[in-house]
Amino acid sequence: MLPEPSVENTATDYDAATSFLGKWGRFQRRVFFLLCLSVVPDGLTAFLIVFLADTPAHRCLLPAHLNLSAAWRNSSIPLEEDASRGGASVPSRCSRYKLEHLLNYSDRDLLPGVDVNLSNVPTEGCLDGWQFDHSVYASTIVTEWNLVCGESWKNPLTTSIFFCGVLAGALISGQLSDRFGRKIMMFATIALQAVTRFIQVFSPNWIIFCALYFIVGMGQISNYLVAFVLGTEVLGFHIRTIFSTAGVTLFFGAGYMLLPLFAFYITDWRMLLLALMIPSWLCLPFWWFVPESPRWLLSQGRIEEAEAIIREAAEMNNIEPPAVIFTPLQNGVKAGERRTYNICDLLRSPNIRWTSITLWVIWNTVNIAYFALSLNTANLHGNAYFNCFLSATVEMPAYVLSWVMFRWCSRRMSVFASLSSVGLLLFIIQLVPAHLVFLSITIEMMGKFAVTTAFSIVYAYTAELYPTVLRNTAVGACSMASRIGSITAPFFIYLIMER
Q1: How wide is the angle at C-alpha 417 spanned by C-alphas 459 and 368, nearest 5°?
Q2: What is the 8-class DSSP label of residue 327?
């Protein structure tokens, strides 16, 4: 069954019961900005893997002790055609000429390409490891654990494991938040991220790094989702719309824009992780300033606690509260009518079932496009830091546009228009010739703008479609279902790069 009508009415009547607080008092401003600030660390680390796992230029390492002439050292790597460079010949990244043959030719004073036809020299893999270009990065997890050539599949898998953690976090955080409260879950997941990321700095190998990265993914999405829902429940209708479509997303985007700045100045992956752990710790003192959701307290029948929060808010806004605030709502929260809701309730009623299934498909589609475009920035032509910054920057006007569309357009039309734009731009980019690099990047960034707009609108729209007792679970379930897209997105990029 769906939630009882009396419970839904309780949530609906909440706005009327708290309207005396005003729209934009000191209380609303404090909640708005603290919740927005709490997601800045999420923006900083959401696409951290772009720099942690970037693959620098590399070639097979030649042991220093080999007695090879300079000519044969310079010609020890075979040339291959690079499709991304218009078929130009570049040194192979995963093979070298067999050293025994090179030593033989060098000892006999034969010259490569003159006395020896290099196409007839047999090749072998990089048996002594790789030599990486450190002009951009001091180290990444790729250079640390040699995730190239035969081990290159581990690179996209690392990202997918993170998003598996995101899937798990989306699955359990909503239900735990609906059961134990928004505030405690929000700060528990902030602390989880900070502690896990600190431990991750000392990862001795790739497997432990991925295991910890899974936990980081759980904490990150849980923090974002719970902060998002908490804001939509505490703030009034008009401020709630700004918060859900522009506020929290703009601060997430601001964190995303800061990521390439941090990565530019901190080029060692362990030190970068350590630096990006600090913002999460700085958010923990917000515990003493962010209230629990009065709507959630009402849905649990904890009327006195909800009233105490509203009276404190009224005092902060210099407003005299009425003697009785929630008494007219008490009939809707009788002990006999209260029950615990879970993800199965999203499928019990026909109306909620089809709404949920439709949203799961939409979320999944948007996620594939959003994360594929975001994670691909390191592979674009030009500077990886600038491309990441550009990708983050185009999100800012997209968040503003999503608020404008949410404010003055119908919800369905906003979703339809944004999704159609994404599909059209992604189709057009396939028709652009490979040598028109600037045009390709421009259209890709337009696609990123459109998909970010769609993402923001879908997030806010989903929160509106469900009652309080199911809202966090529903948003979490949609986020969970969409992770099929984000988990597979890294492999779309991997297959294209390996083609």
Answers
A1: 55
A2: G
Alpha carbon separation from 336 to 307, 333, 391 (Å, rounded): 21, 8, 51
Q: How far is the C-alpha of 336 from the C-alpha of 328, rounded, in Å?
A: 17
pLDDT for residue 6: 41
Amino acid letter, residue 70: A
Summarised one tens digit per residue, pLDDT across range 81-113 is: 766 565 667 888 889 888 888 888 888 888 887
* Residues 454/406, Cβ–Cβ less than 8 Å: no
Percentage, residues of the chain above pLDDT 90: 18
The amino acid sitting at 1 is M
The C-alpha angle with vertex 280 and arms to 247 and 194, in degrees rounded to 5, equals: 140
Separation CA 74–CA 171 (nearest Å): 54
Separation between Cα atoms, residue 366 and residue 363, nearest integer Å: 5
Query: pLDDT for 121-152, tens place per residue?
Result: 888 888 888 989 888 899 999 999 999 988 88
Distance from the Cα of residue 360 to its chain's centroid? 17
For the record, the structure tokens of 384 come out as: 């990886």
Nearest by Cα to 252 from 470, 56, 41, 472: 41
Rounded distance, CA 223 to CA 192, Å? 10
Which one, of 497, 171, 183, lies nearest residue 346 by Cα?
Answer: 171
List, in sequence order, every beta strand (DSSP E) within 111-159: 123-125, 130-132
- With a CB cutoff of 8 Å and minimum separation 6, the contacts of 421 are 450, 453, 454
Q: Under a CB-based contact definition with an 8 Å cutoff, are residues 216 and 200 in contact?
A: yes
pLDDT one-digit tens code per residue, 254-263: 999 999 999 9
